[in-house]
Amino acid sequence: MRTLFIYPEFPKTFWSYEKILELVNRKVLLPPLGLVTVAALLPQNWPMKLVDRNVREVSEAEWDWAELVVISGMIVQKADMAVQIARAKQRGLPVAVGGPFASSTPDAPEIELADFKVLDEGEITLPMFIEAIERGESGGRFSSNGEKPDVTSTPVPRFDLLELDAYDSMSVQFSRGCPFQCEFCDIIVLYGRKPRTKTPEQLVAELQALYDLGWRRSIFLVDDNFIGNKRNAKLLLPAIKQWQIERGYPFSFATEASVDLASDDEMMQMMGEARFDAVFLGIETPDEASLSVAGKHQNTRSSLEESVDRITSYGIRVMAGFIIGFDGEKTGAGDRIVRFVSRTGIPAAMMGMLQALPNTGLWHRLEKEGRLIQEKADAKGVNQTNLLNFVPTRPIRDIANEYVDAFCRLYEPNAYIDRVTHYYGKVGAPRWRAFYKPENSDKPALPEKNDIRALATVIWRQGFKRNTRFRFWRSLARIARRNPANLEQFVVTLAHNEHFQEYRAVVTREIEQQLACLPPEPPPATADRARELQPV
Ligand code: SF4
Q: pTM value?
């Protein structure tokens, strides 16, 4: 069965970094890990091709070659998912859809033309799909009915199907699920609260597969909470460290983790030694009351500022997510986030307005309270350019205006340079350097041609063209003097401002357009209802 995998296009997002990727001659930040995992779970005698629509179009020859089309994606990709399904159907091809969007909303109109809906985790539902194909069936819906698979026998993803040069980073996955219970989170709905991990041997085999394909750049561990199962993460990290030492540390890693990482020195030390350079934390807000409302109690147990500083001191850079629009939130939430980010210095602070995602605890509560203003099928997913999709407990315009103001202040060019400089003054020396043996490296650690060209462009733009040039040179001199071990990363982080400058204009324009379309006042009944719900 000649199978064509299609990964739908993403809209422009906080993480799309087009300007930066252009500089280094790459197209996309991360590859479609879900699809290459599905490819590994299908019969290996099926010929396979994969097209990531964020990289390029599907060619006519590829459409003609295909006997089956497999499409997977997230909620933010649903528009292009619908387009690709329609194109495949026009050509008379059977289509199978899966992934987070199909699993959470299998009856969504965007996927109604698909013949097969392969929902939930593929380890359970793909064998059902394969049997149906072998029986000659022309459609079906396969669900795991709440069962979660053991991932210790999940095969190595088919990374060989990817056009590796198009990506800035590769991804692998060690665990699925998270033990916490944040009300807005869909991860625990999709993957459960009992983190399931692969074995260290499995993950190392995935790293080796990427290494054998010639990959030598960064790797993102896409786990939603890498330390969800701390015991198993601590079994994995020494195996990665040993593998890295034997090859001269060819990969750097980034991942996502809960804030309680900061209270585990052993974990941070192990991550540093394995060359984890960065971690994304869901901080959400410095307002304790909002964290409690969201069920994010783990973020209230110790000082968030100290947590950021502790992780940073291990040479692990912190990126963080922030949300505005929680129930009971007081005026000035946006300003409090800006002040928190400025004090801690977190360079990449991703901010968005709260969205109720289908089937989450938040969705069910708002539905019961009659506050959802969007059908399940219309949910757009977490994005920086969407208004809240429910009636909040304070005026939506106030929240949106605070949000736009905060976003613009966070990425004001001078403020960004000052923040990044403040942050890099605190970043600890890389822990892995103590174990780095250049003689083990098959290639000396020379920068790639693309990287040298990108660096020259950044220095030209930031150091000569922009009117922030004096600040740039002053900051560069300061970090060169105080923290030379992190100078290169400092320049890379400053370069991200090229993207944020453009993106803050997108955020402002799109939110203002949506505000202009709102009715002057919320319908009285709904407004009254929201007032009733205001926590005392
Ligand atoms: S810590 Fe993160 S992954 Fe875990 S439940 Fe909360 S939001 Fe979801």
A: 0.91
| Architecture of the structural domain at 168-275+431-445 | 2-Layer Sandwich (3.30)
> 278-286+299-429+451-536: which CATH topology?
Transcription Regulator spoIIAA (3.30.750)
| CA of residue 248 to ligand 1 center, whole Å | 34
Query: Measured at the alpha carbon of residue 196, what is the angle toward residues 98 and 95, in degrees to the nearest 5?
Result: 10
Fold of 3-142: Rossmann fold (3.40.50)
Query: Residue 258 CA: which ligand 1 atom is closest?
Result: 1
Structure tokens that stand for 500 in this block? 């944020």
Pairing of strands 48-52, 95-98: unpaired
DSSP H or E run through 128: helix 122-134
Question: Edge-to-edge strand order for the sheet containing 3-7?
Answer: 48-52, 3-7, 68-72, 95-98, 116-118, 140-142
Residues with a CB atom less than 6 Å from ligand 1: 178, 180-182, 185, 187-188, 224-225, 258, 282
Beta strands in 79-233 (DSSP E): 95-98, 116-118, 140-142, 169-172, 175-176, 196-197, 218-221
| Å from CA of 61 to ligand 1 middle | 42
Cα 483 to middle of ligand 1, angstroms: 33
Look at residue 445 in the predicted model and tell me its pLDDT.
54
**Cα–Cα distance between 267 and 152 in angstroms, integer?**
22
> Rounded to an integer, what distance in angstroms lies between the CA atom of residue 349 and that of residue 321?
6
Q: Which helix (H) or strand (E) holds 5?
A: strand 3-7
- Name the residue type at position 220: F
Residue 260 Cα to ligand 1 midpoint, Å, equals: 12
**Residue 25 corresponds to which tokens in the numbers above?**
């001659």
From the list 344, 286, 356, 338, the residue with the least C-alpha distance to 319 is 344
Choose which residue among 176, 225, 292 to substitute to test ligand 1 binding: the one with the highest number of ligand atoms within 8 A of its C-beta: 225
CB atoms within 10 A of CB 451: 16
Measured CA to CA, the distance from residue 208 to residue 523 in angstroms comes to 58
Closest Cα to atom 6 of ligand 1: 182
**Spans in the chain with pLDDT lower than 70:** 375-383, 441-448, 521-536
pLDDT tens readout for residues 462-489? 889 888 999 999 999 999 999 999 998 9
CA distance 3 to 70: 7
Terminal Cα distance for the chain, rounded: 61
Q: Kind and range of the H or E element at 300?
A: none
Atom of ligand 1 nearest to the CA of 224: 3
Q: By the 8 A CB rule, do 17 and 501 touch?
A: no
CA distance 67 to 1: 6
